[in-house]
Structures
1.
Amino acid sequence: MAAKPKLYYFDGRGRMESVRWLLAAAGVEYDEVLLQTAEELQNLIKDGKLLYEQVPMVEIDGMKMVQTRAILRYIAAKYNLYGKDLKEQLLIDMYVEGMRDLYDMIMLLPLALPEEKEKNLSFIAERATQRFFPVYEKVLKDGKNYLVGNQLSWADVHLLELILMVEECKSDILLAFPKLQEFKTRVSKLPRIQKFLQPGSPRKPPMDDACLEAVKKIFNLEKGLLFKYSSTVLADF
Ligand code: GSN
């Protein structure tokens, strides 16, 4: 029997959470090494396990994979969640990349200045309702149950993860999106997803202060070095 994938990250959502979701949707069990200290991260680096001295890192199929999107794409392809041809893969990539723009904003929100939190939350809600959700609502309006190819794909798994995250920012965010409401209910009921949504699963909660403090220590986060932690969040400046 092939070894279980092993996930190296801290004990929180961050970039690894989408990997956890995708493996859960694929029905793959995995082990996790949850880093607690900067020393543990440095040891992985010293052992040459992290190509870019960064996590997420996933040991799977004899490889030490890094770069979140590369990891996700590999898992999606391996478990038949990445479309049936190049055109479906392109659609999945186009949808997922849009979702990640919004996802990254939410992921980085705990690093925002407290006095700017409300402004950032409003921006996330505005982007969700004006730019991203209308795209997926329109796709699903054409009588489709899934975004691409009428079967579950990485795009659907990521969309459900994202919807739940945006709802944590603003609980009525789906008010004007009936198809997304149906989609959320339908996909949440798929047995593997339903299991992942149950308490006690490896799904992580939103980042709290204790987790943020741990992250600051593990990665030696410095105030004022925005480029170190952000990507698309700055795209609107
Ligand atoms: O998507 C990726 O996996 C990479 N492009 C970025 C990974 C990354 O920034 N990892 C952080 C951990 S917290 N982020 O999710 C990291 O390892 N930072 C330490 C460092 O020296 O960059």
2.
Amino acid sequence: MSEIKVRFAPSPTGYMHIGNTRTALFNWLLAKKLGGKFMLRIDDTDKLRSKEEYELSLRDSLKWLGLVWEEEARQSARFDRYNEVVEQLKKEGRIYACYETAEELEFMRKRLMNKGLPPIYERSALKLTAEQIAAYEKEGRKPHYRFKLVDGEIKWNDMVRGEVKYEAKNLSDPIIIREDGSFLYHLPSVIDDHDFGITHIIRGEDHVTNTASQVQMFEALGGIVPTFGHLPLLTGKEGKLSKRLGSLGVRELKAEGIEAMAISSFLAKLGTSESIEPFYDLESLAKSLDLSKIGRSQPKFDVEELETFNTKFIHGAPYEYVKGRIDADENFWNAVKGNLTFVKDITAWEDICHKEVKPIIEDSALTEAAADLLPAEPWNEETFNLWVNEVKAKTGKKGKDLFHPIRKALTAQENGPELKILMPLMGRNKAYKRLKGEAA
Ligand code: GLU
């Protein structure tokens, strides 16, 4: 069996968004699960719309998500190879020149539709005589080129959709080269997949019809046909995935404080029969990958659900997950994480321990008595309970009436992590002054 290899093939005509992140993720996870390789292919044949800025950003986003690649290629560097294949396929009669203008093609489509027929290209170009071609060329018409499909059934076993079947005669021969000589996506993609030994391709279901003609292109190249999986496209809350959501950038989510692994955990299970649960590393997410669990209907993507999930993700995150990104130790992380919306918010709690806080005094008799009962340092997590019991005995306060004024004096917050963890970190000096009503 040949080596497993998958690829992610973005066109650098925009930033990484939720839609292409999902495609990249599924391919990466499949490679990981099958012990194969992940390749990045930059589909930059569209010179006008491709921008370096987008490509750099796509690379950054992939790295941030942890979707690292082991190999890469760029389509704009491979035109010689594409032209070589085109010449070969022309000789074999699989690529042919067409001279219809866009208006003529539109007219032909309309004529067929008016007759109640499907608008399939009738291969009129193949019926042109040498004289007609010479006349067109003299007129200054430039040919575009189509790939000739062979009659018969095209079928594949889709990793997501199961068996998919097409009759070639129900498809138009795809245009592969435009009048100006530029390539459309179809053929270069197949040449690359063939040359780089791509074995599995996961992409959006908007490519299913392309796949039908591409299966024949793989066969024309004499190579293996990769295994395909077509994911149902995401939709927004109100049906179609809106422009805003569809292009919701990974950069924006990152800036907001959404965790890369929260995005991956969320996208990997959205629209599957499994529940969306946090995975704290891509390897375990890859182990859980099961493409047969992907439903056929289009899953709804709601950014607010992702945000809510992100909070749940952070509340459950083990220290290992954030180690190296935060100053706090494991104890502090475990005490504080349940109060965080974003990991970056941890600094607010660190500041409460280490920087100046203006206390809020609700019951000065209680908090002043509490200050006077503070034991000498060193403090540990036991200190708080021993001390609070003494305060309780002395003041007769209990429950909320006891804890709430102490919390507000020490932290100036309504809620927060356990005081037994925060107190030793702020130290006796700050605790004493705050309980006495002084900023410290
Ligand atoms: N560049 C193509 C796209 O972004 C790649 C499609 C494919 O995966 O074959 O749609």
